[in-house]
Q: What sequence folds into this?
């Protein structure tokens, strides 16, 4: 199998998260597994729990990251956030890239679950590729409102090239 490459936007996002070797991380919407690969490469005693509603996303993530699954650093499940029961009591970080849930509708139950599981000082990192710049203000506004209503403090970061907007929601 050829070596996989991690897109620059994913590298930037994971660098910004500053994943530590012992972190307990949840990834929402693992898709093709690039985020999982970048996160797991930084873990030693920590673990990534990656979820996706799509069977193909789960399969691709497992195939791409089989060595981390085998090492016990990665668990991948087909489930949505609303029905998730996180296997770890406390999460240091939550990562999501281009997951629309947080800005397309009220998601109070999902955010309450995250608030309950993220340790004080931990954070939820939501990233959106700004391919359609006209959507960015609405994405930031709606996602921020949902997170603030759920008890998080939100800051916004931006990368110019490739264009990515990030919301960092601290507990």
A:
């Amino acid at each position: 199998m050829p070596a996989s490459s991690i897109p620059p936007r994913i590298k930037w996002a994971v660098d910004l998260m500053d994943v530590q070797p012992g972190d307990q991380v949840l990834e929402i919407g693992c898709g093709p597994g690039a985020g999982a690969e970048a996160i797991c490469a930084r873990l030693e005693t920590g673990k990534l729990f990656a979820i996706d509603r799509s069977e193909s996303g789960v399969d691709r993530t497992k195939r791409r990251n089989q060595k981390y699954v085998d090492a016990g650093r990665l668990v991948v499940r087909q489930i949505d956030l609303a029905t998730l029961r996180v296997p770890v009591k406390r999460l240091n970080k939550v990562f999501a890239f281009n997951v629309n849930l947080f800005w397309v509708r009220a998601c109070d139950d999902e955010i309450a679950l995250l608030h309950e599981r993220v340790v004080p000082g931990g954070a939820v990192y939501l990233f959106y590729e700004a391919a359609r710049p006209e959507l960015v203000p609405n994405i930031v506004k709606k996602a921020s409102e949902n997170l603030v209503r759920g008890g998080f403090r939100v800051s916004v970061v931006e990368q110019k090239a490739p264009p990515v907007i990030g919301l960092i929601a601290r507990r």
Remarks:
- The first helix runs from residue 8 to 17.
- Strands lie at 24-28, 47-52, 74-78, 91-97, 118-129, 153-159, 164-170.
